[in-house]
Amino acid sequence: MDRRLDFCINGRFLAGPPAATYAVAEHLTRALALLTASSGDGEARRQIHVLAPRNARHAELGLPIELVGRRVGNVWEQMDLPRAAAGRILVNLASRSPFLLRQGLTMVHDAQVFTTPSSYSLAFRVTLKANIRLAGRRQLGLLTVSEFAKSELVGLRLAPAERVHVIPNGVDHVLRAPAQDDILPRLGLVKRGYALALANLMPHKNIPLLIRAFARPALAGMTLVLVGGAGREAFAAAGIIAGANVLFPGYVSDGEMRALQAHALAVCTPSLTEGFGMPPVEGLLLGTPAVIAPCGALPEVCGPGALQADPRDPAAWEAALLRLRDDKGLHDRLARDGQAFVARFTWQAAARRLLDVIDAVAPSGGKTGRRAP
């Protein structure tokens, strides 16, 4: 690789509770380390540093991690991080960045804080909206994960199209953890006898639609598995009563999740909007068809591996699942075509694209750019 890489990565994703954006940041950082190491250019590798707060957890990222500053959280990100990054481009992969940053890029995974504000607390959406607006106005550019997400960011006038760069997520991380198939008998599941989705009460995720679909008589013999932190009690507290054929196993390990995805009849995503939509694409890579709402980036990233169903009509989801159950040819075709389609979504490809963007936006004469021959 003919690059001189002199930039740093905002390592706040190493300090805090699990979050989807933090997972993306970690996967992409690891891929970046592998990519630069494989170039045979040790100097290039040494020039990329992860700047993290003192409460960062230990992680083997393949890049040097510098613990900088005395603060943590938002205050660290706004005060200590800019000082530590001075003179270098700062890449922020988890939506937030220093408010006054200019020499930086920030990945904004979606525009949902603007388009579906009811999914977020007031404090969260006020601060994140301000952060995104400032990043789009002041920084070298925004990064995002799909053409749909880019169109929303541009449509909201958060940045002009030429300064919004699409870097699709990878999904090949699902191949790293061996499948723990023993979770199926432990949960009383049989292969292709259940549908899988994430347990989430955010309004735009639209999971109550699935619970209503599984209350219909034709799906009485099929199980809906909702994985994640929101359990039966949390849904009931929100006025959503799940039937006996809805299972809430809570959080599962990576290997257990791989097994659940690989052996499901379908991974279901009824979201009203998504900037990318990782779960159905992960399922497709493992050979499991998706049933999706025709919303957001879901059709873009699932391609020919998905059946689409009206996100307001439980009967449509019932019908789609019954088609997959009863038509093996359809099931196998969607699985085959979807798996081939999503093979493009690798973290190595994302890392290559990130390096290309950094090269393109680096100020002329700056420390980051292509080497002269």
UniProtKB/TrEMBL annotation:
SUPFAM superfamilies: UDP-Glycosyltransferase/glycogen phosphorylase
InterPro entries (UniProt xref): Glyco_trans_1 (IPR001296)
Domain of life: Bacteria
Domain Glycosyl transferase family: 191-339
Record CDD domains: GT4_MtfB-like
Gene3D superfamilies with a match to the protein in the record: Glycogen Phosphorylase B (3.40.50.2000)
Pfam families for this protein: Glycos_transf_1 (PF00534)
Keywords: Transferase
Entry-linked PANTHER family: GLYCOSYLTRANSFERASE WBBK-RELATED
Protein name: Glycosyltransferase involved in cell wall biosynthesis
Organism, as annotated: Ancylobacter vacuolatus
Lineage, opening ranks: Bacteria, Pseudomonadati, Pseudomonadota, Alphaproteobacteria, Hyphomicrobiales
